[in-house]
Design a protein that fits this description.
By secondary structure, this protein is α+β, with helices and mostly antiparallel strands. The protein has one domain (about 1-130): 3-Layer(aba) Sandwich (Aminopeptidase). Helix content is about 30%, strand content about 35%. It has 4 helices and 6 strands; from the N terminus they run ααβββαβαββ. It has a 6-stranded mixed beta sheet. The radius of gyration is 14 Å and the shape is globular.
């Protein structure tokens, strides 16, 4: 997971193996996908939170992330989630298009949330999707 995340997030801070291991020790967190494309999700009560989604650059633009969104949504619903949240960098146009096609709506903005070494900080968009 860490290798795929590093390849996918070359502009940002990739997560380490230790971070993935720590998160996956929680019974509330699950991973879905494979080394080409994966999602890490936490379900608490009736909320699912997409912690991260990464597609290796060698496998982008093949529909893997779109299919994965449907898959993890189904698992989250089986775990009792009625809606899902995520946050995405405002300058991540590919991810924003994906989330738009999955019926997510922007509900909040975190100004300057993502630090960029090659330019100004970027806002985080908090997005929500209702399963019902």
């Amino acid at each position: 997971m860490a290798q795929t995340h590093l390849a996918a997030f070359s502009k940002g801070r990739a997560w380490t193996s230790a971070e993935f291991t720590s998160l996956l020790q929680s019974p509330l967190v699950f991973a879905h996908g494979d080394n080409r494309c994966f999602a890490l999700v936490r379900v608490v009560a009736d909320e699912a939170e997409l912690l991260t989604l990464a597609t290796h650059p060698d496998h982008q633009r093949h529909g893997l992330a779109r299919g994965l969104m449907e898959d993890w949504h189904r698992v989250a619903q089986q775990r009792g989630a009625q809606h899902a949240f995520l946050e995405v960098a405002a300058d991540n146009s590919a991810a924003r298009r994906l989330y738009d096609t999955c019926a997510y709506e922007t509900v909040a903005t975190r100004p300057g949330y993502y630090a960029r070494s090659d330019g100004p900080d970027v806002d985080a968009l908090v997005m929500r999707h209702a399963f019902v």
